[in-house]
Design brief:
With about 575 residues, the chain is of the alpha/beta class. The chain is built from 26 helices and 13 strands.
Length: about 575
């Protein structure tokens, strides 16, 4: 299990500094900190603490690293920042009673990462260590000396899992400039430590950023700093700086859902609700409703394991106030999604089941009429009235709302596009865990629906012919048949769910008593196979028997009124 101190942190990272204070070269693990200072401060870059940089190293950071940070922040439409940087070296300074001066450029990469972290407010992984010289304004990273000592120090620390360093063989000139013995020692150390720590080589800052920044750190910063859905202002992605900007901008919507899913899977209700609140605040700040937010959040929550859904403090996962604030920016096309979002303000949305007990909490076996009341509730859930309200109405509304100008298509490509669009339209009008789907996935499902809908009339080819020639109404007829088939499928699934939730929780004695009651009251409606079974045998077939009775009762509404 990761140490709490290794959780991602803003403006903080580790590095290895090679010191000669003891008479021989020793790599010491240190921490580098960066924080923003007021924009009106006298200097853009200031170092404090027992560890100092020599003038050459300081000037390099000012001339190369700071401009790269500025370029990234400005590309994200953020203001440039001033920085206060400090390097701690508790062990060496406490032992020797003096500070250390850093010469050379091996701390370029970690210093760049803490400055970027402080500027964007993105948290860095704390189980990773880096060394490397940022050699150009384009963000290229060049090799440095003392790789073996730094790897050994990282391994010995016990809480570092990954060591990030520049590739030492990619550029032949490096191998020529580096002392031969240093090159050999570095290669040997890399080989010997491969199984002890993850060794990652990088060519530029883009690779370092990808390694240091967790996905949830990027998306949280993007939402808070405002670049969640920003677009790059350039088209040239050939240099590492621009690729780094693009990395920070791309897929933030996907990052949000992945991070939220990860928090939920880890039973972290606090972080899950925090990132949802941040997501909502971002869109409120832009006075807009996030498209498909309700259905995607509902689908994600519905997909959680049961124990995770019962996590203390998780529900309601969004507040009524948040829903009200967001809904004021919803367009007409968002109204169904808003209704779904409001469901998540309920503390027990996913605990709803058929009430198989009476008001006093009695089971079906505690009173002679309890079995009858129990069946009456199930029969109502399976009735046309209930199924029309819960399944059919939304699909009927979806069909009625879908206007088409041309009922004829010219070829299979147009036909596939038409049925895919209508299928997605149906999904958006139903409270379905399928929710927002990709168009490719929806196209495949839509074709499957056509095959099912026209199975007895020639399948897909027959439907395509109807859409091309319109003998029965063309696409209007196709969409009517798709709607009817979708209703049948959803009603069947709903019935199966109702029966399982009603029957599975019953204990064996209750199931046997219910079986005996069914045989006594409804035996004449049952096939001989079920009618002649002992109640103990029939108890194994309760779902099948109850569904059979419900389907054979043609006027269930009238039956319910009579009983």
């Amino acid at each position: 299990m990761a140490n709490k101190n290794d959780d991602p942190a803003i403006g903080k990272t580790k590095t290895a500094i090679v010191s000669q204070v003891t008479g021989e070269a020793v790599a010491i693990i240190t921490e580098i900190f960066a924080q923003k200072t007021p924009v009106d401060s006298n200097t853009r870059l200031e170092f404090r603490g027992p560890v100092k940089l020599d003038d050459k190293a300081f000037n390099h950071i000012e001339a190369v690293i700071l401009p790269i940070i500025d370029q990234i922040t400005q590309s994200l439409e953020l203001s440039i920042q001033n920085f206060l940087i400090s390097v701690s070296n508790i062990g060496a300074t406490a032992t020797m009673g003096k500070g250390i001066k850093i010469s050379g450029f091996s701390t370029d990469l970690p210093i760049f990462m803490v400055m970027l972290s402080a500027s964007l407010q993105t948290a860095l992984r704390q189980d990773i260590i880096a060394t490397g010289h940022i050699a150009s304004l384009a963000g290229d990273v060049a090799p440095v000396l003392d790789i073996p000592l730094k790897i050994e120090a990282a391994v010995a620390s016990g809480n570092i899992t990954e060591f990030l360093f520049p590739e030492i063989e990619k550029d032949r000139s490096v191998t020529l400039l580096m002392p031969q013995d240093e090159f050999i020692k570095a290669k040997k150390s890399i080989y010997q430590n491969k199984g002890r720590i993850k060794l990652t080589t990088v060519e530029n800052i883009h690779g370092a950023i990808k390694a240091f920044l967790p996905e949830e750190s990027i998306v949280t910063a993007a939402l808070i700093q405002g670049f969640f859905d920003a677009a790059p202002g350039f088209k040239d992605f050939s240099n590492p700086v621009n690729r780094s900007v693009m990395f920070l901008l791309e897929d933030n919507e996907k990052r949000f859902w992945n991070a939220l899913s990860d928090f939920l899977q880890k039973d972290d209700a606090v972080k899950a609700k925090s990132i949802i609140r941040t997501f909502i605040d971002f869109h409120l700040g832009r006075k807009r409703y996030p498209q498909f937010f309700g259905e995607q959040l509902y689908r994600l929550t519905m997909s959680m394991p049961l124990l995770a859904r019962r996590l203390d403090g998780l529900f309601p996962i969004v507040s009524v106030d948040q829903c009200i604030a967001l809904s004021q920016y919803a367009k007409q096309t968002d109204h169904n999604d808003v209704q779904t979002l409001y469901k998540l303000t309920s503390p027990d949305e996913f605990e709803k089941k058929i009430d198989t007990k009476d008001e006093e909490g009695l089971s079906p076996t505690s009173d002679p009429d309890q079995e009858g009341q129990f069946l009456k509730k199930i029969f109502y859930e399976l009735s046309d009235t209930s199924l029309t309200q819960k399944i059919g109405k939304s699909l009927d509304d979806a069909r009625a709302d879908y206007l088409i100008k041309n009922v004829i298509v010219k070829d299979a490509s147009e036909f596939n596009q038409a049925i895919t669009s209508f299928y997605i339209h149906m999904l958006r009008h139903t409270q379905s865990p399928e929710g927002h789907v990709s168009r490719d996935a929806a196209a495949a499902d839509a074709i499957d629906r056509i095959e099912d809908s026209f199975r007895n009339a020639g399948g897909y080819e027959a439907a395509l012919a109807e859409a091309k020639f319109g003998t029965k109404g063309g696409l209007r007829y196709i969409f009517d048949v798709m709607t009817d088939q979708e209703q049948l499928g959803r009603k069947r699934k709903y019935k199966e769910m109702i029966l399982k939730e009603a029957i599975d929780p019953l204990d064996w004695e209750t199931k046997v008593n219910l079986s005996a009651y069914i045989q006594k009251q409804y035996g004449r409606y049952l096939p001989d196979t079920f009618r002649t079974m002992e109640p103990e045998q029939l108890a194994h077939h309760l779902e099948e028997v109850i569904l059979l009775l419900a389907e054979r009762e043609r006027d269930i509404d009238r039956w319910l009124r009579k009983h």
